[in-house]
Amino acid sequence: MCGRYLLDEADQIAPRFHVEDWDEAKLKPNYNVAPTMVMPVITQSDDGKPQIEMMQWGITRFFGKDAKKMLINTRADKAFGGFWKKTVCSRRCLIPANGFYEWKGSAGNKTPYFIHPKNEKLFAFAGIWDTWKNDDGHEIKTFSIMTTEPNAEMREIHNREPVMLHREDETSWLEPSNDSPDALERFFYPYEDNGLEIYEVSRDVNVVKNNNGKLFLPINSQ
C-alpha cells in the first residue's frame, strides 16, 4: 500500500529524468501528496523521448453504469489479470518521488513513518496510467502506483511496498516493446534489504492540508 508520498525536489525532475523543454516553474514541491492530487509523471513520447505529464493520482475503474472506484495502487500479483492487463502492458509511467509515508499500529493510534531509498534522493515508483471522461466530457489522465511484497525493513511496517525502480530499470519500464508479462514481471521486485531508511515522523502528516518541509523530518529532530 502507498497512500501518501513526497516530492521535495520538483525542480530536479526534468534533468533527473532527461526531459527536454519543460518549464520547471510549473513543478512545485509537495510534502504530503494524497490521492486525487495532480502530480507530474514521466511517460514516453511518440518519438521515444521521456516527457512530463500532469496526471491525477487514482485510476477510476467503473463497475456498471453508476458505480466506480478510485484505485491508487495496483498489486503486482494481479497486474496481468482482467481489468489491469491491457493498462500494465501498454500504459506505463514513472512517478517521481523523494519518499513515501506509511503507518503502523492499531486503528486510531497509528504511527506515521517516512521511507526512502538510502542511495537515491529522487527516484521513481513504477506506475501505470489511464484516461476517463468526467460528466462534462473532459478527458482526465490518471495514474496508479504498482505495489509488491515488502523487503525486510518494510515488513515491520506493512505487508506491501511500492515498486521503487533502480535507475537502470527506468528506461526499460517505459519501453513500449516490453509489453508481455514475461518482460514486465522482473520489475516487480521488493527493494533490496537494508536499502531503505525508515524513521518515525510527526502525526501532522495525517492531515492532508498540512504540507510543509517539516513533515518528513525525524520526530526527534522537530
Q: Overview of this structure, please?
A:
- The structure is a single chain.
- The chain has helices spanning 13-16, 85-90, 167-174, 181-184; strands spanning 4-7, 30-33, 38-44, 50-57, 59-63, 67-71, 73-75, 92-97, 99-104, 111-117, 123-133, 139-148, 161-162, 164-165, 196-200.
- It is mainly beta.
- The chain has one domain (4-221): Alpha-Beta Complex (hypothetical protein yedk fold), CATH 3.90.1680.
- The strands form three sheets. Strands 3, 4, 7, 8, 11, 12, 13 and 14 form an eight-stranded mixed beta sheet that branches. Strands 2-1-9-10-15 form a five-stranded antiparallel beta sheet, with no helix packed on it.
| CATH classification class | Alpha Beta
- Written as H for each helix and E for each strand, in order along the chain, the element string is EHEEEEEEHEEEEEEEHHE
- Rounded mean pLDDT score: 91
- Percent of sequence in beta strands: 35-45%
CATH homology group: SOS response associated peptidase-like
What's the main sheet like? 8 strands, mixed
Low-confidence stretches: none
Distance between the termini: 27 Å
Rg, alpha carbons? 17 Å
Number of separate domains: 1
DSSP helical segment count: 4
CATH topology: hypothetical protein yedk fold
| CATH architect. name | Alpha-Beta Complex
Quick overview:
The chain is mainly beta and about 220 residues long. About 10% of the residues lie in helices and about 40% in strands. The chain is built from four helices and 15 strands.
Task: Give structural attributes.
4 helices; hypothetical protein yedk fold; five-stranded antiparallel sheet; mainly beta; 15 strands; 222 residues; globular
